[in-house]
Amino acid sequence: MKTTDDSVRLSVRELVEFVLKSGDIDNRRTGAAVTDAMFEGATAHRKIQKSMGGDYRAEVSLKTEILLEGDPPARLTVEGRADGIFTREKEDGTQIVTIDEIKGVYRDIYAMEEPVPVHLAQALCYAAIYARDEGLSKISVQITYVQLEEEKEPERKRKTPKVKADEIRRFFFEYTAEEAEARFREYVELYRPWALFVVKHRKERVESVRDFPFPYPYRPGQQKITRQVYKTIRDEKNLFVQAPTGIGKTLSMLYPSVQAIGQGMSDKIFYLTAKTVTATVAEEGMKLMYDRGLRFSFVKITAKEKMCVLERPSCNPVDCPRAKGHLDRINEAVYDLISHENAVTADTVSAYAEKHCVCPYEMSLDISYYTDVIICDYNYAFAPHVFLQRYFASGAKGPYIFLIDEAHNLVDRARDMYSAVLVKEDLLQAKKLFEKEKAKRVLRWIERANKAMLELKRGCEKMTLFTEENFPTALIYDLENLKEALELYMDRNPSGENAAEVFEFYCEVSDMVTTYEAMGKGYVTYSSFDDDGSFFLKLFCIDPAERLKERLDQVVTTVFFSATFLPINYYKELLTGDTEQDAMYVDSPFDQRKKALFLASDVSSKYTRRGYEEYRKIAKYIVRMSTEKKGNYLVFLPSHKFLEEVRTVLDEELCKREEEAKETGDVYCPPFEILSQKRVMTEEDRAAFLSEFDDPHTGEEQSSLVGLSVMGGVFSEGIDLKNEALIGVAVVGTGLPQVCVERELIRSYYEENGENGFDFAYRFPGFNKVMQSAGRLIRTVDDEGVVLLLDERFRYRENLRLFPKEWAEYFVTDHEQIAGQIRNFWEEREHER
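Predicted structure:
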């Protein structure tokens, strides 16, 4: 998708909404009263257009190009489709060409004294373009408002808006061609500095990328990645990259992507991450290239909760002073920042947001339009209610590149974001809330939905799986009506005492309705009981490929990359639905002699084996690993409960040694210190945990450090403990997820589709966690150490076939041999040095 450096293209709607932006941020309103009602509005458009007669031309495409003088100049293309153009007879009998702008809304249209300014401006722009093209001296505009009344039927999946003649209201305005042109030029002039900024920045970035070298000497394998990524972007394909930890994947992705933008193959990079730490690595990569002369701007979008100036986000003009008048000030704030900054961090945004008294989170979203790279969480690209609408709402393909870091995480994240849950007890809580508010219409539909849920509950013993034949369609019908009732209530009562609770309940209902409408073959619906006894209905997305593909089709190229993409076809299937997608495997560049891999033959984390004796044998491995050589070690265990049991045995071992020292009169120095991951940890707690590894713990009077953590948790991926910061890792168990309703549903789904259900539900996601945990050890060419896989099942053929190439050499061991084997490894390393 080729882009040009001197042109800026935007729709008429984008132009007027940008330059006429005003007012407050107010999440107490759903926006249903003043915005197009998407599917319902589009259907209403078609009904109105068909009723207007033979000379009424619907959906007329209009476009104009304007040269904006500047240094350098810019070519601004403004385009769009007028809902209708027809000739109207005036009261004096003369004829006049009329531009019709149709808006479907849920508000009371007879309470409107005038059209919404943005709607009138949109029609005026079309009028100016058409009058100029056709040489007209006069033209009129008609703003047609359609008050939608939903006519929902339980047996239908879609809602049909009902439009009657008395539900339509029109506003008429007449202009000379010069008046319409003047208003259009006024809007263009307001946009001029932004268009000139975009073109000037593009020119600077193209010049900077020309002959820009890779920031470092290539590591083995890096150049292979950069070439393949560039080729993939050029060919507008997708690519899966399996590359080992420590090879420098981030720069290997960013560098060819900025080169492709320099060649006009794309215009913007979305660097998508699952965790803050990987986003930080991308941010550092962009800073590095900027410091070396690359003029690419970037913004890292941080979660609203972290950026909000309030203790808890409450985005309305009553609770937040920055929300009041935010839209009046935001354009000036954004222009100030982008004119002075290229590296846009959360701190940068916060500083400018404070200067202009605007919301820092919303400001970061607006800034993204003017940056070359957006670093953000997966949600901003894929989540139905969070995605960046300015890029993806239209459904059209844009000149964008997706770089998806640690993409193995996207499978479960996508399942979660495309699923929806309704809890019966939430309906009862909402009923109590709205009884106080005396909201009769809302209560009516809550009671109906609750009654439907009660019937489902009575028919459910442990779990009910629904099919097309017994699907609770009537409940969805009730929820659709409840959603509409809530929207009207929120728009009419924005300052209610319980506004936050109402909005939270609305989101739960809305999620169910929108997920139901998007459901495809990758879904199952079931009801069950939670651990606290609450009853719920869930629309569960098992295979997210179809939903993900909707977004992937809107970009030029997507590169999925991870250190743990094995087996690759599993990830191709779940992320794209296409196992024929291109993929590359990059061999580890690190000296395999610097790592020893041991497979224990006498321990297991199986539930049937769990008990004191098994914990004691596992503890022996940990003790022997950490005492053969002083240093820092990480142990990954299956759960917090398992961690606590092993911690108890290790504490007993330390107490025993201390007692022995007292009996002999020796000075006691513990052989190791223990650091445990807590069940709940703040960011400060996590930082404190990792900071303990800054000290290599190799001094004469020091003990080894053993960090106990949970496999698949916050310390099992995305952390860099290089050189002596970490010299050993033990992974306890094969990482299999716990057997539960949803894992069994996944298993059944893939078995029915001809796959090995156990692999898809348990083995593959479990082994991914194992590889991520083991991958904490070797991060650079100087790193060395030992990896212990503590479960006899690792020796099973079905697990050995999943081993990456760099695990080809391993040693089978037991708790009697391990100490000598580790000692031999360290002696060999010392000899080689």
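Summary: The chain is about 45% helix and 20% strand.
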